[in-house]
Fold:
Amino acid sequence: MKRRQFLTGCAALAATALVNPMEAMSFPTVFPHGTTIYKPSKCWNGFTVFGTEVEAEGTVLIDMNGNVVKQWTDICQAEHPPKLLKGGYLAGAKRPSPEKKGRTWGDESSTDLVVVDWNEKVVRKIPRAGMHHDYQFEGNPVGYHAPGMPVDNRKGKMLILSHKFVHNDKITKKELYDDYIVEVDKNGKIIWEWLASDHFDEMNFPPEFKKTLRKYPTFSMTRTPGKKGGDWIHVNAASYLGPNKWYDEDPKTYSMFNPDNIIISNRQTNTSCIIDKKTGKLVWQIGPYYYKDSVWEFNGKKYKKAYKKLGQIIGQHHTHMIPKGLPGEGNIMVYDNGGYAGYGPRNPGAPYGWSNARRDYSRVIEFDPRTLKIVWEHSAKQMGMRNKYQFYSDYVSSAQRLPNGNTMITNGAVGQFQEVTPDHEIVWEYISPYYTKKGNYNLVYRAMRVPYDYVPQLKQPKEKAVTPPENTTFRIKAD
Structure:
């Protein structure tokens, strides 16, 4: 059995036990898809949008019972992520022609970033944006719903994460497939830009980290035809901090939390950073090492035990500040994948020192950005599972805080979405049935929940509870 099938089976089977979802675990090849758990009274109900990563299927919108209520087959065809705006508008990557799949800013082979209306008419387009992994609209910092900050300003400024091919001998002799963040105005004109490699010296990488990175900068083929590049940092999330209580409390002391500043997640370096919008400099960073004796610098001071509270983060996704108006506002939330990432000394699992940090379980963490103290953590351990790998997505994935305090989690490598309560109860679960042509994976980069009123074209659907069978007595009848 392929590893991804194994993980999917683990996740699905864990969810299908009625009394205790964790009491019966094995490695099944047969498991349910669609909505497998649903407790309406405990959920923050709405529609869920996600990209399927299957070219012919594109983007799907489902209700709480897993029924497909809308599908856009030409938006996010194995690109990510799609985002639904209030009014029934959808944003995402659109290929000008089938072969144009690139993720490089301004390149002829790259995708456009578009907004389409409910009838799929393009109402805004950033040509050849080559968007990868994230983008934001003015008026909402993170791209998911927050009270008072709906995602609805399709005509305003946009923040876009893309790539550029560059050389930087401080990093490596090889060409870099560098991360490029650009902000455009309502007319598509660039009004701000930031290139990751320009800030290499600010990233506090240890000597042995730099040495390995220089030799092995994650050099591989890109989506630009015929081009290789070092995806050395791999930024997978970029969002504004947005209005927050820290900056409101003391703008001088907490100037790094200026609402205009931008927070990024850097998968391959195991770091997350905040960029000062005015200067472009990094003003807050965690990682790459999180040892108990690692020193963390914050606001001009050094803290010797801060990382002891946080623990090692590996290959993380969707680092962002929880928006104002939501439970936990001002805290940083991260999907800490585990898996493999980083650079440094070699070890038996990483003989070249590339992706030398490894861990076979995931967790979602919420922490205070001033102290790194964990406020909330969700993982197999918190759910009462014996084996940590029972909650695991080694890449992609995300976490969205919902207005009722629940958290919408995308365990992307196994195509699993879960809404969990603060007490770690799974109150909604969905397993994606959209597999690649070879049928070996159903990856979903990021799923997001939106209120029903984001889609005035549809009536609010009926919400029917879904109670899974008791695992130990569930049987499949013989033919």
